[in-house]
């Protein structure tokens, strides 16, 4: 009787190897690509004396202007204690300052300093050759296509996050 029962499909047990058909494959490949890209960015930032977590905050400050710490935490995926340590580091280096928020005695907005802007700009110059190395295996046009595809995954048109 058991011969009449179709065999159960076995799910893929592969992980993030090329050609994997697992439903987790894309997420795992994105994670591996993120690790590689983060290592390249850390290498670019090391000579400037900051880490990627610091630069992530500077990116938000350049983009949004003065930002309260809870919003910095949300924008960078940090927790409250983590963002406080990062902002402390940036203040010690003269790259950011905390300022009072008018109308809210408890809130403190973080603002990038001119020295922070200078370091932010220097980081881009330092990162250029390393970023090129990151996509060296891609052919002409593939880097732009990859950026387009990743943008559509990260920022879906329906606003789903």
Ordered list of secondary-structure elements with their pairings:
Elements: H1 25-45, H2 52-64, E1 67-68, H3 69-76, H4 80-92, E2 96-101, E3 104-112, H5 114-134, H6 142-154
Antiparallel strand pairs: 1-3, 2-3
Task: Describe this protein's structure.
The protein has a three-stranded antiparallel sheet with strand order 1-3-2. With 161 residues, the chain is mainly α. The protein contains six helices and three strands. It is globular, with a radius of gyration of 21 Å. Helix content is 55%, strand content 11%. The model has no long low-confidence stretch (mean pLDDT 88). The N and C termini lie far apart (49 Å).
Distance between the termini: 49 Å
Beta-strand proportion: 5-15%
The total of helices stands at 6
Oligomer: single chain
Overall pLDDT confidence: 88
List keywords for this structure.
3-stranded antiparallel β-sheet; single chain
Short description:
By secondary structure, the protein is mainly alpha-helical.
């Amino acid at each position: 009787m058991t011969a009449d029962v179709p065999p159960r499909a076995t799910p893929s047990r592969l992980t993030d190897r090329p050609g994997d058909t697992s439903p987790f494959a894309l997420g795992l490949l994105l994670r591996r690509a993120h690790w590689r890209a983060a290592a390249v960015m850390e290498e670019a930032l090391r000579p400037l004396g900051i880490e990627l977590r610091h630069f992530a905050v500077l990116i938000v400050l350049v983009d949004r202007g003065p930002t309260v710490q809870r919003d910095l935490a949300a924008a960078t995926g940090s927790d409250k204690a983590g963002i406080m340590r990062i902002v402390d580091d940036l203040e010690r280096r003269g790259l950011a300052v905390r300022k009072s928020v008018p109308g809210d005695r408890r809130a403190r907005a973080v603002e990038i300093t001119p020295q922070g802007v200078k370091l932010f700009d220097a980081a881009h110059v330092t990162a250029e050759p390393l970023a090129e190395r990151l996509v060296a295996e891609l052919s002409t046009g593939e880097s732009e296509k990859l950026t387009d595809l990743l943008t559509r995954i990260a920022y879906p048109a329906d606003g789903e996050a």
